[in-house]
Structures are given as structure tokens and as C-alpha cells.
Amino acid sequence: MLKKDLILRSPAELAIGVENITDGHFGAVLSRAGVGKTGFLVQIGLTQLLSDEKILHISLDDPMEKINLRYDEAYASLVDSIGYVDPQKAVRLWESIKHNKVGISYTESTFDTDKIRDYLKSFKKADLTLPTILVIDGLDFDADLTEILEDLKQLNQEFSIAIWLSMKSHREEPLSQEGFPVQLANHEALVDKAIFLMPVDNKIEAVVLKDGDKTDQKFTLDPATMMPVE
Fold first, then answer.
1. Which of 109, 117, 210 is nearest to 165 (CA)?
2. Rounded Cα–Cα distance for residues 184 and 166 (Å)
């Protein structure tokens, strides 16, 4: 029951829908620096953990310790958002699901899709359940990522794993005719789902840029916790 209550409060459930997080090939969370891309990606990952799924979270910006801390804080924010919860019950739940998250820290120079492929193959060799999503936070979409994205597309097909990416946009860059930041416009055909986070009146406005019938829907989030604002 607690898992269900927490999922229903998740901004990922609100903007995407838990059943849609893995329904597709590539998803993207876009914003300017410091607005909340990583926090929203963590909420996507956390929603999968609460659904008893495994996730692989790769960061090119944060060390492992910070990745783990971000998940701890995101879980605490979700728990706080639903009102009083027995603290021991909340701790037991987190202890029972957090081991399904694997965090890996890379730099731009050490990031290697072959390493990711080998890691996913190790699940198959050990007859273990594969992660349902691969979160990659920190790829530089101002650079030419053609080869990396092609490799990731092959991973998606080979392991049936949904891939969620962060894309950093820039204030001074004009949007495309469709209203997309250039980082998304350059890879529009690849991305099935896209959420654009924008600071508005001390809050964050989450706009669904791509996702079928949900496209153009808007949601307001608390910038400190990423929780939906009523």
C-alpha cells in the first residue's frame, strides 16, 4: 500500500505515468543548468524501484556517493509528501528496494557503451533479471553524440531496456518551430518522450514536449523537492 501511495505522488507518475516510463526507446529530461534534470531523472528511477524493478543509473557529473544520496533524499521527499508515515515502515521499505539500483560514475573520457553492454550481459550470464531502465545523466548534447546514441540504440534493442537521458539547454538559444530546445530538435526522431523543466515564479514548470496524448501538458513542481505542487 505504501509503495502505491508513493508512486501516486511521484512527479514521474504525474508527467509520464509509471506504465509509460519503460514504454519506448529513449526519453529525455531537458532544462538549463541547475533547474532540476538530475532530480527528475532520480524520481523516474525511484518510481521504477517502487514498482519492484531494477535500474541502472549512470552519471557523468556525480560520484557514486552523491548518486546514492540523491536517491535517499528523493525517497524522503516522497515519503514526506504523503503525510504521516510510520518511520520504521518507511525505512524498511527503502532498505528492501534500494539494492535494485546500481549507480555507476563515469567521466566524459571514461564513458564507454561497451562497458555498459558488458555489464548488462553479466545479468544474462548470471540468469538475473535485467534493469528495466538505464538513466544516463551528463552527456554533452552540444557535442556530436551520433556514435554514442547509435550504440545506445543498439543496447535498447539488444536488452529491451528503456533509456532516459538528461539534456542541458541554454537560455540564449532559440527554440525550434515545434518549441524544442536545439538539443532535442537535433535528435527528435530518436526520442519518444521528453520533459522540459523551466523555472517560473520560484517554481518549476514541467512541460511534456513529446509523449503522444500527454504532449503539451504542464505541471508545477517544488524546486527544492521536485514534488508536485497542488
1. 210
2. 10
- Record the cell numbers describing residue 181, joined without a space: 530546445
**CA nearest to 189, candidates 28, 54, 36:** 28
C-alpha cell recorded at residue 163: 533509456
Q: Following CA atoms 201, 20, 153, 99 in sequence, which dihedral angle do they give, to the nearest 10 degrees?
A: 90
**CA–CA distance, 230 with 227 (Å, rounded to integer):** 9
Q: How is 29-49 classified by DSSP, letter by letter?
A: EEESTTSSHHHHHHHHHHHHH
In order along its 230 residues, the chain shows pLDDT tens digits of 899 999 999 999 999 998 889 987 899 999 999 999 999 999 999 999 999 999 999 999 999 999 999 999 999 999 999 888 899 999 999 999 999 999 999 998 999 999 999 999 999 899 999 999 999 999 999 999 999 999 999 999 999 999 999 999 998 888 888 889 999 999 999 999 999 999 999 999 999 999 878 888 999 999 999 999 97
Which CATH number fits the domain 2-221, given the four candidates 3.40.50.300, 1.10.510.10, 2.30.30.140, 3.10.20.30? 3.40.50.300
Q: At what angle do helices 87-97 and 64-81 cross, to 10 degrees?
A: 140
Give the domain ranges of the chain: 2-221
Q: What are the CB-based long-range contacts (under 8 Å, 24+) for 221-226?
A: 221/11, 221/36, 221/197, 223/35, 223/36, 223/199, 225/77, 225/80, 225/81, 226/11, 226/36, 226/39, 226/40, 226/42, 226/43, 226/74, 226/77
